[in-house]
């Protein structure tokens, strides 16, 4: 994708952008340019200023000082609608889709086609929706409800929606956070097509392995300022050092040297949902084991059944019965509902923290204790002192910032929101922790904090089963990696397995190792 590009008048230019939020200096004289037909990757930890800067570009945030030029002409956006009218479209990390509507209705929400009788042109809308989905490399029926889709599929629908806006400037915030490697390649092909048509693309990602695949230029931000530019093919170690001042190998804790007895054992286990769901890949033939003190990873393409395995074990979003062998701590377990899973010692961190893991409008303290109310409200009576002690302990243990129990969760960074999800689940003192994309949308430094916390927990005897679409994360974190395909476990690899072997097993069905 990359090549030497002569400097012409930038499509977009920010000069000396300043922004304060109360006493917080969010942007410190930021300069940033974007050329037509360029992919400019923007890197930075949560809190570095990326979102504020993109808020300026997308019309959601008005700068205190500085200049904003589009095609060399000064512009002043008062609302996101002004920016959209100028051809600037942003796809946020947290998707703005309506779960109760179908795909076609979401794609054309607010500008639905109508007939001559002023009724919705359903046939035309579905036909145009298919064309948009195909353009984004998405093979989904436009009549499917958004609520029935996995997170990765919802992300692809959001990409397709943006393609219909004919953007001149496209801002992608963590677009592959919930995508498999194959789906990410579809997205990259679409980006290359848009780039070839002269669209300028600002690409924000915490996945450093994507940078050489997609970038023409790379800018790194820290503490509200630009700290430098890096070559698109710069080693990950260089980027990590620019971002956090640490070496890449130091992001992951040492693996377990020994493990305890089996905590979770599945042998040819199959889940039969009470009510079948379209597009939901029920576990068909799963064999795996998680020992005390061990982290086991789940790999596979979107649709392989990783998310469904975790949610079926926990009884989340799908009730049903298990067939085959399902054992917890050496005893047969009768799972199928959240209450049974909790009694058996399971805890679950969903891949959709904002939609299902947190009460965004509530405080940090209220979110932390919501899974253990019986502990902090004995006999149904409020116990403020006990609640404050529990919350303070969780904030200290997981380094949740700001360290204020009364802070609204909606105002926290993605990394701190994820730490709250971990804290509230671990207060239930589980035997086994089920994690689905635990670092989705989390910056490099916060990811490392989570990895070390997980190792500290396994050192105390906890077992962890984690699904992730980031192969470097699975390889760096896990003791073993199990590959799934169409609801079936097809391979079980040692931790030092390379990415090529894992991808091959996921694509081809694999051979048990």
TrEMBL record:
- Quote the subcellular location field of this record: Cell membrane
Grouped into one coarse class, the protein's main location is membrane
Question: Which UniProt keywords are given for this protein, alphabetically ordered?
Answer: ATP-binding, Cell membrane, Membrane, Nucleotide-binding, Repeat, Sugar transport, Translocase, Transport
User: Can you provide one Gene Ontology molecular function annotated for this UniProt record?
Assistant: ATP binding
Q: Which domain of life is it from?
A: Bacteria
Entry keyword annotation includes Ribonucleoprotein: no
Quote the InterPro entries the UniProt record gives: AAA+_ATPase, ABC_carbohydrate_import_ATPase, ABC_transporter-like_ATP-bd, ABC_transporter-like_CS, P-loop_NTPase
User: What's one Pfam family the UniProt record gives for this protein?
Assistant: ABC_tran
Which CDD domains is this protein grouped with? ABC_Carb_Monos_I (cd03216), ABC_Carb_Monos_II (cd03215)
Q: What is the topology of this protein in the membrane according to its UniProt annotation? A: Peripheral membrane protein
Q: What is this protein called?
A: Putative ribose transport ATP-binding protein rbsA
Q: What is the lineage of its organism?
A: Bacteria, Pseudomonadati, Pseudomonadota, Alphaproteobacteria, Acetobacterales
């Amino acid at each position: 994708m990359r090549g030497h590009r002569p400097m012409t008048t930038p499509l977009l230019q920010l000069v000396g952008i300043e922004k304060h939020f109360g006493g917080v200096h969010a942007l410190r004289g930021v300069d940033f340019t974007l050329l037509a037909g360029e992919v400019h990757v923007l890197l930075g930890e949560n809190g570095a200023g990326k979102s504020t800067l993109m808020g300026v570009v997308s019309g959601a945030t008005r700068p205190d000082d500085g200049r904003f030029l589009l095609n060399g002409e000064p512009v002043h956006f008062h609302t996101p609608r002004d920016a959209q009218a100028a051809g600037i479209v942003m796809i946020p990390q947290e998707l703005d889709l309506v779960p109760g509507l179908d795909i076609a209705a979401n794609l054309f929400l607010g500008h639905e086609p109508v007939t001559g009788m002023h009724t919705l042109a359903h046939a035309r809308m579905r036909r145009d929706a298919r064309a948009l989905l195909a353009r984004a490399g998405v093979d989904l029926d436009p009549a499917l409800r958004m609520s029935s889709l996995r997170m990765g599929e919802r992300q692809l629908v959001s990409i397709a929606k943006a393609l219909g806006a004919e953007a001149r400037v496209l801002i992608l915030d963590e677009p592959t956070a919930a995508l498999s490697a194959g789906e990410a390649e579809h997205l990259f092909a679409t980006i290359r097509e848009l780039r070839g048509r002269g669209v300028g693309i600002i690409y924000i990602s915490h996945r450093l392995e994507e940078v050489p695949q997609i970038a023409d230029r790379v800018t790194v931000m820290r503490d509200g300022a630009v700290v430098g530019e890096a070559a698109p093919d710069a080693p990950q170690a260089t980027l990590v050092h620019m971002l956090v001042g640490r070496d890449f190998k130091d992001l992951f804790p040492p693996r377990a040297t020994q493990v305890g007895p089996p905590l979770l054992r599945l042998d040819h286990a199959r889940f039969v949902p009470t009510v079948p769901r379209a597009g939901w890949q029920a576990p068909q033939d799963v064999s795996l084991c998680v020992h005390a003190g061990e982290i086991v990873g789940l790999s596979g393409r979107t649709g392989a059944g990783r998310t469904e395995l975790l949610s079926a074990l926990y009884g989340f979003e799908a009730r049903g019965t298990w067939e085959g062998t399902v054992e917890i701590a050496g005893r047969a377990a009768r799972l199928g509902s959240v209450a049974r899973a909790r009694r058996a010692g399971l805890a679950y961190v969903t891949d959709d923290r904002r939609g299902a893991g947190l009460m965004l409008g509530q405080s940090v303290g209220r979110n932390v204790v919501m899974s253990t109310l019986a502990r902090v409200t004995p006999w149904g009576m409020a116990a403020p002192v006990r609640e404050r002690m529990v919350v303070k302990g969780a904030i200290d243990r997981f380094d949740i910032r700001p360290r204020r129990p009364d802070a609204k969760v909606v105002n926290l960074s993605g990394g701190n929101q994820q730490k709250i999800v971990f804290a509230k689940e671990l207060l239930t003192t589980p035997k086994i922790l089920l994690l689905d994309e635990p670092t989705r949308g989390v910056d490099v430094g916060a990811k490392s904090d989570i990895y070390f916390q997980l190792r500290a927990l396994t050192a105390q005897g906890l077992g962890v089963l984690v699904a992730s679409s980031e192969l470097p994360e699975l390889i760096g974190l896990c003791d073993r990696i199990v590959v799934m395909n169409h609801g079936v476990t097809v391979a079980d690899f040692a931790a030092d397995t390379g990415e090529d072997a894992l991808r091959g097993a996921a694509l081809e069905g694999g051979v048990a190792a």
